[in-house]
Amino acid sequence: MKLFVALTLAALALLACSKKDDAPASRAAARPEQFARGEYLTQVGDCYACHTVRGSPPFAGGLDMPTPFGTLYTPNITPDKTHGIGTWSADDFWQAMHEGKRKDGAFLYPAFPYTNYTKVTREDSDAIYAYLMSIAPVAQDRREHAMRFPYNRRELLGGWRALYFKAGEYRNDPAQSAEWNRGAYLVEGLGHCNACHATRNALGAITRDDDYSGGLIPLQNWYAPSLTSSREAGLGDWDTKDIVDLLRTGVSARGAVFGPMAAVVQHSLQNLTQVDLQAMAVYLKAQSEPKAAEPWRAPESRKAETGKLLSLGAQVYKDRCESCHGADGQGVPRIYPPLAKNQAITMTNAVNPIRIVLNGGFPPSTEGNPRPYGMPPFYQELSDEQVAAVVTYVRQSWGNAAPPAWSVDVQKSRGVPAD
Question: CA 164 to CA 180: how far, in whole Å?
Fold first, then answer.
């Protein structure tokens, strides 16, 4: 019985918010000045990404999200009274954001990140509500989740919430600057950065609000790097300007974003003000571990095998990569990312560089980088061994020191959708 409950709670922690109740409710009058503020805040929260299917009206929902426990579909959050949230009041919306409960009081599933959104102020929640009520309603029905039993039993979330959820707005830390606190409010709250960049426990929960230690994104097979570890994407030795550039444009002197993070920059971060991006950078930089990580060392038992990979990888790199990234791995600033001493390349988990070699990728098109240079896919051209070899070569050249990639690692990434 204990095992059943544990597995059930772990599964429910990965699910998305469910179908909303449409019982009549009064709508609070919105002030005109709230609309622009609310639109900006929906961009901070990246609401578009989850609640919009490509080619469909914004916020009409229906985006499928496969999970190990079935498929869930995001809800329509336009003000349509039948299919959306048109009968919700500002109080109903606040209850969802702050308490993780739908209009009738039933628990919402925490893949709708109310564990972060609870930190949002009532004023900001009301502004988001006002904006959503101002957009065109879309008569698009909400699709029912196709989840297997017992993961469709929302009442079991009560135990999970008792362990891992406590409602409460963000409170400023008096020991920190106003800029640091603004950054913390954005990163920990609407930005919900640790929804990807945190380590989850066996029940799928994040146990610390300031956990940015990295984690594998389920099913997408991308690794969201640690933002604190100096071995991964720890930002402590980054210039604040480089962090802001990366968040605003998707490229900087230190590297470029690909995969799920490219979509975050495109739909959300590029729209933020310079002041808010600066605050986020200050807060994130302050989270980095102060001490350098121990350098990785190859185990003696696999040195011969690794040596063969390096030899093959050097040839593949010369033939396929050198013309853009250079013989010295320095790349071309803001065009072709540097590979030498690039922490995105040298993380312990090699899945990201493997996926980039297989599927290619583009940084997002942003105002600051409207025509990004991309990398072609080598899915058809390179064997598993060649991909593993070139990734290993890059991870162990020009001062880089990271574990090798193996053919079995490449096999796991073949067939996984590119985004």
Answer: 25
Angstrom distance (rounded) from CA 52 to CA 252: 28
Q: Alpha-carbon distance 261 to 263, whole Å?
A: 5
| Separation in Å, CA 300 to CA 155, 297, 323, 388 | 52, 9, 33, 19
CA distances for 173 relative to 52, 59, 134, 136, 146, angstroms: 35, 34, 35, 39, 43
Q: Could you state, in order of their start, the residue ranges of all structural domains in the chain? A: 2-164, 300-413
> Please, is 296 exposed, middle or buried when counting C-beta atoms within 10 Å of its C-beta (0-12, 13-18, 19+)?
middle
Whole-number Å distance between alpha carbons of 110 and 180: 27
What are the counts of helices (DSSP H) followed by strands (DSSP E) for the chain? 16, 7
Share of the chain above pLDDT 70, in %: 86
Answer yes or no: is pLDDT of 33 > 60. yes
Domain 300-413 sits in CATH 1.10.760.10: yes
Is 361 in a helix, a strand, or coil? strand
Rounded to 5 degrees, φ, ψ at 183 are -60, -45
Tell me the per-residue pLDDT of 184-197, one tens digit each, with 9 for 90 and over: 999 999 999 988 88
Backbone angles phi, psi at 211, to 5 degrees: -85, 115
pLDDT in tens, 219-249: 567 788 888 776 666 677 788 999 999 999 9
Structure-token pair, residue 355? 């996926």
Q: Is the whole model's pTM more than 0.85, yes or no?
A: no
pLDDT at residue 254, as a whole number: 80
